Amino acid sequence: MVSTRGLKLKFFEGERVLCYEPDPTKAKVLYDSKVLDIVINKDHRGRKNIEYLIHFQGWNSSWDRCVGEEYVLKDTPENRQLQKDLAEKAQLQLGAYLYRKERKKNRKPGDRASASEDGGSSSSPGRMDTDDGHGITSTSEDDSSTEDEAIYIELTADLRKIIENDYYLIKEKNKLMKLPAEPNIATILESYYRHYATNQICGLTEKSTGRYRTQSINQNSVKPKPEDIQRNLAICREVLDGLRIYFDFTLSDLLLYKQEVGQIAFKQAVSQLDNGDVKME
């Protein structure tokens, strides 16, 4: 173990802090976090480097990460405001609106015409990129006047029944759900990742519905390469990370009924008190 003598530590073990998303490819946001451990390493020149093992509050321990000091901030009112500002910015980047706008940019003219004939909403067509002919380039005017288009999601009968029951209990009967939910989002995402990883490793990327279908798949299937599995798992983890961030920062604004917002705020405040917040000077 490398000695910490002579090192000035900005944070200590057990301290509640704010931590930036460590993945530079994802939205820059700040998470409620806790320092689990202080890790001291040496670089190739023998100089000591300080890293902190961070646990992100409300998430499974499998998401714990070692990060440098530059990723960690003290839990102060100023940094809380920064957290809020970054969260609002992240919602614009991660929300469905950006997806719709990008989809409009990349949609082919034939697809746009087809959508109009089917009764779907449409916007002003983009300008064809005549330099390389690889797609459609939207003008600045199109960007500034892009209209939201409706997205219709087909719900199963069981899911619709659950949503309608929630609406009735919360809006009509003024009842609240028991928190924390079981299973919560972190558990669902982690369970899906394990399930997906197991199928990838075992080569079971398809599910069959009968004996003869199973035999056909086994005879014609190609054993996946290790590098393909590694790439697929990395993509899966990235998608789940995006969902985790989306749920984390759109919960109060988009995913809750008005009656539930106060309940969540109260639960979060109690959780912080139970975990022992650090008082900053």
From TrEMBL:
Q: Name one GO biological process term.
A: regulation of DNA-templated transcription
Keyword Transcription listed: yes
User: Looking at the UniProt record for this protein, which Gene Ontology cellular component terms does it annotate, in alphabetical order?
Assistant: MSL complex; NuA4 histone acetyltransferase complex; nucleus
Q: Segment Disordered: which positions?
A: 103-147
Please name the InterPro entries in this protein's record. Answer: Chromo-like_dom_sf, Chromo/chromo_shadow_dom, MRG, MRG_C_sf, MRG_dom, MSL3_chromo-like
Alphabetical list of SUPFAM superfamilies matching this protein? Chromo domain-like (SSF54160)
Keywords in alphabetical order:
Chromatin regulator, Chromosome, Nucleus, Transcription, Transcription regulation, Ubl conjugation
Q: Which domain of life is it from?
A: Eukaryota
The record, for Gene3D superfamilies, names: 2.30.30.140, MRG domain
Q: Which residues form the Chromo domain?
A: 11-90
Low complexity: compositionally biased ranges: 116-127
User: In the UniProt record, does the keyword Ribosomal protein occur?
Assistant: no
Q: Which SMART domains match?
A: CHROMO
Q: What does the UniProt entry say about where the protein is found? A: Chromosome; Nucleus
Q: Where are the transmembrane segments?
A: none
The name this protein carries in UniProt is Protein male-specific lethal-3
